[in-house]
Target: Cytochrome P450
Amino acid sequence: MEFADLYKLSIVVQGVASVVGFLILCAGVYSCWISPILAQRKLKRNGFKGPPPSFPLGNIAEMRKKVMVLPFDSHRASLGITHDIHSIVFPYFSRWSKLYGKVFIYWLGTEPFLYVSDPEFIKQMSTKVMAKSWGKPRVFKDDRKPMFGNHGLLMVEGQDWVHHRHIITPAFSPSNLKAMANVMVDSATIMLDHWSSILDSNNNKHEIDVENDITKMTAEIIAKTSFGNNIVNDENGRKVFEKLRAMQLALFKSTRLVGVPFSKFIYQKQTQEAKKLGQEIDEILVSIIKSRKDNNNDLGQDFLGIMLQDDGENQKLSVEELVDECKTLFFSGHETTALALTWTLFLLALHPQWQNQLREEIKQVIGEGQLLLNDPSNVSKLKKMGWVMNEVLRLYSAAPNVQRQAREDIQIGELIIPNGTNIWVDLVGMNHDPTLWGNDVNEFKPERFKDDTIHGGCKHKMGFLPFGFGGRMCVGRNLTIMEYKIVLTLLLTRFSFTLSPSYSHSPAIMLSLRPTHGLPLIVQHI
Ligand code: HEM
Model:
């Protein structure tokens, strides 16, 4: 090629590169700036109010100021133990809802979110839109991809969601759950025997961080129920189990600027760490799934085995989908249950009379000694324990919110929720709303569920949604209820609990609602 031709070619290449660069810049400016401004105008036209956002953080600056966890000592000194936690964990929502009502718009970066803590609005929303037509916020899908993938039940949408839900629901059938009860008894007993040996060498009284131990135990239970009993001894199984927990910690550590353009580049180290762990976990899960598939004659009755079964009607899930389902079940299946148990022990430590009432009920319903081992599913008859569980989920909602994204314009009364708007249903806000529960809203009163076991006397039937609402309601709720009752029965029949002086009351949102400094309790043999 002649020099002149080369020169012409390089001019053309430079021209094309400049045009491509310009187009990328335009696309960036449009999606990060112009599109959010247009969305904001549309929301205002449709009657939505809310705190004014600024570019590029939206309302995050104001939210982050208040989210900061106070240092251990100053927090202990400044806070007594109050169950009025909405203004502690979501001070900005608490303030904004006084200004703008129970439905308003706020911004995470350049993403508009519709805040909702009005049960009537939720009722109307869920009658207008079918479960499969809701989306899940794209910003969260992206942010939590290493944990849940994009093909697990929590994140899939549309017809894919229908397909996944259809395959996964049978795994939680009563007969499958009954078969899982012994796994729960075994794992809980290992933890309790360990506590016993600590007490034996400490004059029957010792401080134990129960949150830590309970989380490990529920993680072991979900690992065994997902992949079979051998998973904790198997080399690959142990690795995947450890890496899943490491990734969870990596994601908890970081308070990322979700919704802010290019924020991934600011938190590059954490993003890379979670991504790398995510890839390693995927590889190990693929090898576990493949070897299980090769052993076609014995797929097993754990979650993985059930998901692999072909009922002749449904196409099975692909390996990629199975990997995401395994991760989804692991993360959504142990953290929330562990927190429900942890906050229960906290509240029972403050209310020893309820420890005694539950022990009495256990004695009456289950009897003493070995009965639990004969038929662990007997625990379903423990009614008072059910009230306690509901009251704990009300005061300290393990899952503090439910999220959706509109995939079409939705008209609710006079308002139109524009397509693409993210929706944040504030369960903590509703659970602590005196207009729904009365003036004793922040008191621990399990008896409010005595005559109204489902709604606890809440003034609106959609005001208490610990497991979500509509067709996307939690698929694991029956498993949780059984696990909660089995573990709590075993705990209360062997030990008594009081709050340690070193406990600092600092509930905080780290995906779930957690005690920031753990839960140290003084544990004694009965
Ligand atoms: C105290 C324990 C639990 C609480 C408070 C809880 C709460 C929730 C909530 C609020 C939702 C969202 C529902 C919605 O979007 O409307 C949900 C969904 C889900 N939960 Fe749970 N959950 C718990 C335990 C579990 C367990 C043990 C598992 C699995 C073993 C599980 C698996 C899931 C899955 C897969 C979804 C997505 C369902 C779908 O979108 O179809 N959860 N849960």
Remarks:
- The longest strand covers residues 103-108.
- The pocket of protoporphyrin IX containing FE is lined by residues 153-154, 165, 328-329, 332-333, 336-337, 340, 393, 398-399, 402, 466-469, 472-476, 479-480 (CB under 6 Å).
